[in-house]
């Protein structure tokens, strides 16, 4: 009997379609789409594979997802899964599942992951190491928090996405600027946290019914906040050949306790954490969705699998298998330098090819005339693969030290 799956795909962007490709590759799955797009815009390759379509105005509106789900339940007799991977959709998806009686992450658990103040409170109650934090709705709230923890502090939206819209305040002047940038009010509060210094890592975990079955850990080089504060930095993400290096193996116990405290069931989670100079570890935050910054294709390269297909299989069938890790991988991000809004020149590509070309397996190079990127990922990237961590580090170093993107 096929599994009836509703996939929420607001727009047909490349990352949303790669997930649809993964779902379409699974046998014994009946796929229905909930989308902002009309049925006529569905790419031709999915026709015949996608057997249901429901157009909504807003995929972040849980009631519209419920209406769509009821329509499919009436037409199909049942819906077994309601899924989507975008972080912003996790709460409305969970609300809709609860109201429709569809198995999967509940609203309470989704809020544990999505609402950062609630997340930190849950982790702290479980005795886990997290940065001190507070939800602030005014300048006085912020000043009170500073008196407790001292400068610098970090401010971010309470339901932020990764490091986007995250700012650091080092003194009263930068605090005032941060409060203005985030437009902090009682109705629009911000998450304030003490600033943690240390190496920044990720920790990806696959759990099935709350039981961890697979782990991976990567390095941010440098950390996301440093990248946001310094637009000229060419940064990297490194996935070592060793699936869990000693520091990550030590952190594993904290990761498992944290996921249990948040109530995870079946999911691929993406945790960010700090390793301090004294060896102590601090959990930053965790999301109940696949990681970004190209970690999904990188993990696939290391294990010789399609990780999006594996994620789809996990979410549909509650199963996951992957062969042992055989390679290391990394991503170098090319970010424009200068005050302009258009790429005027790209330098060092020949040198980069000489130094790292043998390891490059995927790339999207900046193009002359390309608009300045709006996100911290930058104007282009290259993904490398090697048999050892050292090879990948050498390749990444060659890329970021050679390529220069000039804006004008």
UniProtKB/TrEMBL annotation:
<dbReference type="InterPro" id="IPR005479">
    <property type="entry name" value="CPAse_ATP-bd"/>
</dbReference>
<keyword id="KW-0547">Nucleotide-binding</keyword>
<dbReference type="InterPro" id="IPR052032">
    <property type="entry name" value="ATP-dep_AA_Ligase"/>
</dbReference>
<keyword id="KW-0436">Ligase</keyword>
<dbReference type="InterPro" id="IPR013815">
    <property type="entry name" value="ATP_grasp_subdomain_1"/>
</dbReference>
<dbReference type="InterPro" id="IPR011761">
    <property type="entry name" value="ATP-grasp"/>
</dbReference>
<keyword id="KW-0067">ATP-binding</keyword>
<dbReference type="Pfam" id="PF02786">
    <property type="entry name" value="CPSase_L_D2"/>
</dbReference>
<feature type="domain" description="ATP-grasp">
    <location>
        <begin position="120"/>
        <end position="316"/>
    </location>
</feature>
<protein>
    <submittedName>
        <fullName>ATP-grasp domain-containing protein</fullName>
    </submittedName>
</protein>
């Amino acid at each position: 009997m096929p599994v009836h799956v509703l996939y929420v795909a607001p727009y047909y962007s490349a990352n949303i379609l790669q997930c649809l490709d993964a779902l379409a590759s699974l046998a014994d799955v009946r796929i229905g789409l909930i989308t902002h797009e009309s049925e006529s815009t569905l790419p031709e390759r999915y026709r015949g594979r996608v057997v249901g379509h429901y157009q909504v105005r807003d995929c972040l509106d849980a009631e519209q997802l419920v209406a769509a789900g009821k329509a499919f339940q009436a037409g199909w007799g049942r819906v077994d899964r309601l899924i989507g991977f975008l972080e912003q959709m996790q709460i409305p998806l969970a609300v809709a599942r609860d109201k429709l009686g569809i198995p999967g992450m509940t609203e309470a658990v989704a809020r544990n992951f999505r609402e950062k103040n609630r997340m930190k409170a849950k982790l702290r109650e479980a005795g886990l190491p997290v940065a001190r934090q507070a939800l602030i709705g005014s300048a006085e709230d912020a000043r009170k928090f500073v008196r407790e923890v001292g400068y610098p502090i970090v401010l971010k939206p309470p339901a932020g996405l990764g490091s986007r819209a995250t700012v650091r305040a080092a003194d009263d002047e930068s605090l005032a600027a941060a409060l203005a940038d985030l437009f902090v009010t009682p109705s629009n509060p911000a998450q304030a946290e003490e600033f943690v210094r240390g190496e920044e890592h990720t920790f990806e975990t696959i759990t099935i019914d709350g039981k961890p079955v697979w782990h991976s850990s990567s390095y941010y080089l440098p950390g996301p906040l440093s990248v946001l504060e310094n637009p000229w930095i060419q940064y990297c993400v490194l996935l070592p050949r060793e699936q869990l290096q000693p520091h990550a193996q030590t952190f594993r116990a904290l990761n498992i306790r944290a996921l249990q405290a948040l109530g995870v069931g079946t999911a691929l989670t993406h945790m960010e954490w700090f390793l301090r100079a004294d060896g102590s570890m601090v959990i930053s935050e965790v999301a109940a969705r696949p990681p970004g910054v190209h970690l999904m294709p990188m993990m696939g390269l290391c294990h010789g699998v399609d990780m999006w297909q594996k994620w789809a299989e996990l979410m549909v069938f509650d199963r996951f298998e992957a062969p042992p890790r055989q390679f290391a991988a990394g991503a170098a991000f090319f970010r424009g330098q200068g005050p302009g809004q258009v790429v005027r020149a790209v330098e060092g590509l020949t040198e980069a090819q000489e130094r790292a070309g043998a390891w490059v397996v995927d790339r999207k190079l900046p193009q002359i005339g390309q608009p300045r990127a709006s996100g911290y990922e930058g104007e282009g990237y290259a993904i490398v693969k090697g048999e050892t961590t050292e090879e990948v580090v050498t390749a990444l170093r060659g890329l970021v030290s050679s390529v220069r993107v000039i804006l004008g």
